[in-house]
Amino acid sequence: MLDPILAEAAGHAGADVRFGVAVTGVDRDTRGRVTGITARTSDGQILRADARVVVGADGIRSTIAAAVGAPYERLGRSVGATTYGYWTGLETDGYEWNFRPNAASGVIPTNGGQACVFANASPRRIGRGGSAPLLRIVAQSSGDLAERLALATPPPALRTFTGHVGYVRRSWGRGWALVGDAGYFKDPVTAHGLTDALRDAELLARAIVAVVRDGADERDALTGYQATRDALSAALFNVTDVIAGHRWTDAEIPDLLLDLNSAMGDELEELAALPALPPAA
What we know:
The protein is an alpha+beta fold. The protein has helices at residues 2-12, 63-68, 123-126, 131-141, 143-151, 193-212, 218-244, 253-272; strands at 21-28, 34-41, 46-50, 54-56, 72-75, 81-88, 96-100, 103-109, 114-121, 159-161, 167-169, 172-173, 176-178, 184-185. The strands form four sheets. A five-stranded antiparallel β-sheet has the order 7-8-9-6-10. It has a three-stranded antiparallel β-sheet with strand order 1-2-3.
């Protein structure tokens, strides 16, 4: 449900929202500055759009990041895999997380009486995904959840993320910026990626508003965006990388989860202290 909510909000804010358009690259001026994008419509037409700042919000395999050659500034050491689906009628009273060595699972209540149930483990254990590995991992991590799953209606199919090492990319340059997984990614086992994306969209929007509306120096504004993003992300990145490696023991995971909670709390305090943006003139 989130995608249409975001698209509608963007439209109300004045954005020209296009569907069925695939960005293929960026345009540059004679000095190498990014000045816009090239794209292809669903009927094969070539589309060009100019922009003061081109924002790549296009995920792990970001076309914009590849086009501008955004370098990796940090790489994690761990790769986990996740298989998940949406059960109907699952008895649950909120979010659930279960952590056992090489067997993490969880429940995230959603809308329409459904709950997202996931299992996270090493890529070798998840394999190609599906119900068999999910049910095995859930049973190992939480017998109670396994019993409740057996009484709920399973989804017709499950989805699987086979894993990707965490990374931090340089997320700005002359005429371009990256946000969300395009610029910074960590394993989904801590279920914090969407928070990261919305947080960084807010930070980048502030920087772009400062440049376009208030006349701030572009380099200073975008450098500040990445510096703030990196400062808020460092502790979360570190602890998630360790948890995703599934090399911890039952005795070690409580302290890792306390570290995760502390990092999320520090992030919340920093964001709450941000001043409100003034209304547009």
